[in-house]
Amino acid sequence: MSRLKISIVAFAILSLSGAVAASQESPELPADLPPKGSVKLSQLISETEGRAGFHAIKSISYSRGEYEVVYYMMDGAEVRLNFDVKTGAVKPPKSGGLFGG
């Protein structure tokens, strides 16, 4: 093998090993995701499903440190719960007029 080929192979191996090392570092999470150490979403789903009169979950979303879970009760009523992402505690409904603000 010529020296040029050996140099190219060595460079490729070193480049790949650097990429592997970089991929094993803990990447920063995007700002719109729950922070590390947050309550597991599966725990909040389980808690919601265990509520009296629960029928089905309609949607789950995350925004500004809260999970919002929207579900239906057996009688057809729609319920919205906001859970604190760090503690899992249900937060009181937002107030501030007709549309919550």
Automatic annotation (TrEMBL):
<feature type="signal peptide">
    <location>
        <begin position="1"/>
        <end position="21"/>
    </location>
</feature>
<protein>
    <recommendedName>
        <fullName>PepSY domain-containing protein</fullName>
    </recommendedName>
</protein>
<keyword id="KW-0732">Signal</keyword>
